[in-house]
Every structure is written in structure tokens, then in C-alpha cells.
């Protein structure tokens, strides 16, 4: 499937959505939706916002990009390329998106965000169009998983006691940015902060014997989540036991994540694995992850989650026991559940769940 064919397939998904709801147009304002529709093109300028510098308008017989003169040339040269989008722009000092939109469509319009003001907001239903990934997306996802896992492994082997969490985070971010990867989540904890905080934003705390590295890495709009731990010196038996237990729990989540499975049932099996491992209440201290893809989490798994796993849908489960954690990004395929964020150099721990042997990242001992 070419990039053009991928985009045309997604445009058809949008038009089927429009037809089923009697819509004349759909407006996509969110960066992740632009990246999804265009097979990985980028329309962001400011990183910490969910809307881009470009909006896309899809009608029954056309697809249009609305922007300004600052973005138009770069979009055409470096992002849109051969894709069949008509670019509309105004000078930045005269920019009027409403006027551009009025020239394209009349009637009933749905949007994934707050613009245009008179559109029906259907961000949730529209996001579902992204959840089942196409083969080219899976191939890109595999590459991103390799990049993220390799960066985590390299940093875990390079860091030394005495470094601050900020310095460790900077090394990890630098490796990813050098490969055109956006760091969407960066959590670093050393020693006692691993047990104290589930979301350890990096600080000037210095590494003594143990570090936890957590990353959310984004490229082509796709988002990988992964966690790794490294320990200097002999690994305490209690920590080794806890880590085996959390890997056993993660194996339950991974094994149960199959197309057609109810997410609330997967969650229930994960909670049961916590209890079977001797840590019945640890799941209450942090969410367990959930569906991912073009968003860090499209939704979180809970006992009440109404969703069902789709074929080729990505998930990132992240069970934790105080002092340790297990997390990778997976895809639920028809014939297997594939772990994307793998590193052949990382030590693995084999655990068994429902008769299957599943390899999970062990703690790296240095």
C-alpha cells in the first residue's frame, strides 16, 4: 500500500462516517488526526498543544487544507507532497479561517475540536476511525518502537551514579530528537523516588543505585510508551521478586489483549493477576494503561470500560508495584499480539500466563 493509497483509504473512512450521520463536511483540527489522515505528515509548530497550524476539511467530493502563508509552502513541499489535498491560505495578518471554510462547504459540519464554533463536536466518534491500524502504519510503528527501545537501552547503559535525573532525561531526549522523534512523556526517577511517585517528573535528585526511565515517543503521529529499570550492584531479592510479579501481571494484560476481547474483561484479568501475585491493592495506586496509537492513551482500561479490542489496535499497559513497573506498546493482531518496543540487547525475563511463555524486560543490572 502506497502513501497515497493509505490516505485514500482513510478519506473513505471519513466519508463513510459522514454518510452514516448525514454530514456535509468534517473538519479536523487536532494534530494527531492530521498526522493520521496524511500518513505521517506533520502540522505542528507549538509542541505542547493538541491543535496544529493547519485544519483539514473533508467533503463528499474533495479534501482541503486551510492555513496561512507562513505554513503553506512548507506544507506543500515537505508534508503534503503527492497527496490530493487542495491548499487554501491567507496572509497571516489577514487570516480568516471562517471565510476560507465558507468558500468550501455549506450545511451540516462536524469537527474534532472547538472550531468552527457552529460545528457539531464529534471528537470521540471521529477518533475511532484511527484505532484499527493499516499495514503501513504498523510498519512505521515497528520502526518507532525500535528507535525508542534502543534509546532507552543505550541511555540505561551510559548513565552513571551521581548523574541527576535531569541529566539522564536530557540524554534520552537527545537520542530521540536526533532521530526526529518528539518526546511526549519523559519521566525519570532515581532510588527512593521510584517507590514514592508513580509519575516522577525529572528533578535534580542524583542517581545512587537504581533508575527508572519512562518515555512517550512520537513520530509520524504514532505514540510509543515504554519503561525500563537499571540497577547498579547486586539486585535485592525483594526487588527481583517484585519485578517478576509485575512482569507476570503485564503478561496477563498482554495475553488477554486480543481482537474481540472486552477491555473490562482484560482489566479484570489484570486485577486478578495482581491478587495472584500477592499484591492485591497495588493496581489502585496508578492506572493500568489502555488503548494507544495516535494518542498516548485513546482510553484507559477500567472495570467499566465499554470498549472492545479491534483488530490491529495498539495498547500500552503499564502495571506497577511500588518500586518497579513493566510497560511496552503492543498491537493486537488477528494471529498474535506483537510487542513493538523491543531491544534485542536488553535482558529479558520469561514468565508464563495461561500456558503461554511471555518475555518481559528484566531490570538491567550493571
Please provide a written account of the structure.
This protein is an alpha+beta fold. It has 2 domains: 128 residues, 3-Layer(aba) Sandwich (Creatine Amidinohydrolase, Chain A, domain 1), CATH 3.40.350; 162 residues, Alpha-Beta Complex (Creatine Amidinohydrolase). It has 10 helices and 19 strands. A 6-stranded mixed β-sheet has the order 4-3-2-1-5-6. Strand 17 and strand 18 form a beta hairpin. The model has no long low-confidence stretch (mean pLDDT 96).
Please outline what is shown here.
This protein has 366 residues and is of the alpha+beta class. The chain is 34% helix and 27% strand.
Secondary structure topology:
Layout: H1 3-21, E1 25-30, H2 31-37, E2 51-59, E3 63-68, H3 69-80, E4 86-90, H4 97-102, E5 109-111, E6 120-121, H5 123-127, H6 135-158, H7 165-177, E7 182-190, H8 192-196, E8 210-219, E9 222-231, H9 237-256, H10 263-276, E10 289-292, E11 299-300, E12 313-317, E13 320-321, E14 324-325, E15 328-332, E16 337-339, E17 348-353, E18 356-361, E19 364-365
Parallel strand pairs: 1-5, 3-4, 5-6, 9-19
Antiparallel strand pairs: 1-2, 2-3, 7-8, 8-9, 10-11, 10-12, 12-15, 13-14, 15-16, 17-18
Q: Helix and strand string, N-terminal first?
A: HEHEEHEHEEHHHEHEEHHEEEEEEEEEE
Shape by Cα distribution: globular
The chain-level structural class is alpha+beta
* Overall residue-averaged pLDDT value: 96
Q: How would you characterize the largest beta sheet?
A: 6 strands, mixed
What is the CATH architecture descriptor of the largest domain? Alpha-Beta Complex
The portion of residues assigned to helices is 25-40%
**Rg from C-alpha positions?**
22 Å
Low-confidence spans: none
CATH fold topology of the largest domain? Creatine Amidinohydrolase
Q: How far is it from the N-terminal to the C-terminal residue, by CA?
A: 44 Å
How many structural domains does the protein architecture include?
A: 2
Q: What is the CATH class of the largest domain?
A: Alpha Beta
Total beta strand runs: 19
Order of strands across the main sheet: 4-3-2-1-5-6
Percent of residues in β-strands: 25-35%
Count, helices: 10
CATH superfamily of the largest domain: Creatinase/methionine aminopeptidase superfamily
Amino acid at each position: 500500500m502506497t502513501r497515497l493509497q493509505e490516505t485514500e483509504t482513510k478519506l473513505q473512512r471519513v466519508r463513510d462516517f459522514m454518510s452514516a450521520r448525514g454530514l456535509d463536511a468534517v473538519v479536523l483540527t487536532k494534530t494527531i488526526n492530521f498526522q493520521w489522515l496524511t500518513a505521517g505528515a506533520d502540522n505542528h509548530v507549538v509542541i505542547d498543544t493538541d491543535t496544529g497550524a493547519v485544519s483539514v476539511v473533508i467533503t463528499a467530493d474533495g479534501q482541503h487544507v486551510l492555513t496561512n502563508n507562513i505554513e503553506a509552502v512548507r506544507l506543500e513541499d515537505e508534508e503534503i507532497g503527492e497527496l490530493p489535498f487542495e491548499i487554501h491560505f491567507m496572509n497571516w495578518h489577514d487570516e480568516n479561517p471562517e471565510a476560507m471554510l465558507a468558500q468550501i462547504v455549506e450545511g451540516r459540519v462536524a469537527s474534532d475540536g472547538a472550531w468552527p464554533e457552529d460545528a457539531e463536536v464529534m471528537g470521540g466518534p471521529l477518533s475511532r476511525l484511527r484505532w484499527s491500524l493499516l499495514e503501513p502504519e504498523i510498519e512505521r510503528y515497528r520502526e518507532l518502537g525500535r528507535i525508542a527501545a534502543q534509546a532507552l537501552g543505550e541511555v540505561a547503559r551510559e548513565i552513571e551514579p551521581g548523574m541527576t535525573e535531569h541529566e539522564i532525561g536530557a540524554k534520552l531526549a537527545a537520542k530521540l530528537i536526533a532521530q526526529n522523534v518528539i518526546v511526549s512523556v519523559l519521566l525519570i526517577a532515581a532510588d527512593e523516588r521510584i517507590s514514592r511517585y508513580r509519575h516522577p517528573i525529572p528533578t535534580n535528585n542524583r542517581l545512587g543505585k537504581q533508575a527508572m526511565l519512562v518515555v512517550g515517543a512520537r513520530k509520524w503521529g504514532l505514540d510509543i510508551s515504554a519503561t525500563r529499570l537499571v540497577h547498579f550492584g547486586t539486585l535485592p531479592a525483594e526487588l527481583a521478586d517484585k519485578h517478576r510479579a509485575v512482569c507476570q501481571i503485564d503478561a496477563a494484560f498482554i495475553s488477554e489483549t486480543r481482537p474481540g476481547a472486552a477491555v473490562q474483561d482484560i482489566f479484570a484479568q489484570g486485577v486478578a493477576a495482581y491478587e495472584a501475585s500477592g499484591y492485591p491493592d497495588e493496581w489502585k495506586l496508578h492506572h493500568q494503561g489502555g488503548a494507544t496509537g495516535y494518542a498516548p492513551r485513546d482510553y484507559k482500561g477500567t472495570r467499566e470500560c465499554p470498549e472492545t479490542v479491534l483488530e490491529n489496535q495498539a495498547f500500552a499497559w503499564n502495571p506497577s508495584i511500588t518500586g518497579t513497573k513493566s510497560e511496552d506498546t503492543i498491537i493486537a493482531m488477528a494471529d498474535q499480539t506483537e510487542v513493538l518496543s523491543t531491544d534485542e540487547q536488553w535482558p529479558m525475563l520469561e514468565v508464563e500466563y495461561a500456558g503461554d511463555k511471555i518475555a518481559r524486560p528484566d531490570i538491567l543490572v550493571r
